[in-house]
């Protein structure tokens, strides 16, 4: 039990760092209002979580990489707060694209990862 | 300093998510992730709105709590994977309910968090 929490904790420590470093880097390069950084992180994380789950690597890897790393690398709260900001700025076009693209591509990415992982 | 706080809070956020997942388990529906995500949306909007009003040190800590703790507490990848699994298992009704409640509930929770924070700030100024 304690070991399981430790695995999640170690994965999460790297996951949160990876999220903040990569989103900061993307935000520096991307100067438009569309929240591309969170979008990329969430879609990439969904693809990789699907892949790791499909590979069936066992509980240790599932907790370390899945629940810990990918769980902390991706974020639902930032995604929604960014969406609320787009709504408040009356930027309905970006709001619609961001919401639709995140849900559709997120689920497709998880599906592709899972299918690919099952094949390997 | 900021990165240490970020990792520390990130670990706490993910552990809370894992613990809630162990406590809440419902057959055929990913209730734990849904609750975690909606609660996290409320909290992040609440904290983000407060951030603009805080002095520097409190601002750094609050930012690390928002990005680290709440950011790691909520998760998009698990949501996407669970939605995929529900669809693959032909559990279409659960999939639709899960996606729609996440979409609308997430935005609603953000607005609620933002309004609560604004309410608190005006109440304090009185």
Please characterize this protein's 3D structure:
- The complex is a heterodimer of chains A (about 120) and B (about 130).
- Chain A is mainly α and about 120 residues long.
- Chain A is built from five helices and no strands.
- Chain A has helices at about 1-30, 35-55, 60-75, 75-90, 90-120.
- Chain A is globular, with a radius of gyration of 16 Å.
- With about 130 residues, chain B is an all-alpha fold.
- Helices cover about 85% and strands about 0% of the residues of chain B.
- Chain B has helices at about 1-25, 30-50, 55-75, 75-90, 90-125.
- Chain B is globular, with a radius of gyration of 16 Å.
- Chains A and B meet through helix 1, helix 2, helix 3, helix 4 and helix 5 of A and helix 1, helix 2, helix 3, helix 4 and helix 5 of B.
Briefly, what is this?
The complex is a heterodimer of chains A (120) and B (126). With 120 residues, chain A is mostly helical.
Give the SSE map:
The complex is a heterodimer of chains A (120) and B (126).
Chain A: H1 2-29, H2 36-55, H3 59-73, H4 77-88, H5 92-119
Chain B: H1 2-23, H2 31-51, H3 56-73, H4 77-88, H5 92-125
Q: What fraction of the residues of chain B are assigned to beta strands by DSSP? A: under 5%
Secondary-structure-based class of chain B equals mainly alpha
Order of helices and strands of chain A: HHHHH
Secondary structure: number of strands of chain A: 0
The most extensive interface between chains reads: A-B, 47 and 48 residues
Largest sheet of chain A: none
Radius of gyration of chain B in whole Å, from Cα? Answer: 16 Å
Q: What is the typical, i.e. mean, pLDDT of chain B?
A: 93
In whole angstroms, the N-to-C terminal distance of chain A is 30 Å
Beta-strand content of chain A: under 5%
Q: How helical, in percent, are the residues of chain B?
A: over 70%
Radius of gyration of chain A: 16 Å
- Number of DSSP-assigned strands of chain B: 0
Low-pLDDT runs of 5+ residues of chain A are: none
Number of H/I helices of chain B: 5
Q: Please give the oligomerization state of what you see.
A: heterodimer
SSE series of chain B? HHHHH
What about the largest sheet of chain B?
Answer: none
Q: What is the helix tally of chain A?
A: 5
Poorly predicted spans of chain B: none
The CA-CA distance between the termini of chain B, in Å, is 35 Å
Family (chain A): Belongs to the fluoride channel Fluc/FEX (TC 1.A.43) family.
Protein name (chain A): Fluoride-specific ion channel FluC
Pfam families (chain A): CRCB (PF02537)
Keywords (chain A): Cell membrane, Ion channel, Ion transport, Membrane, Metal-binding, Sodium, Transmembrane, Transmembrane helix, Transport
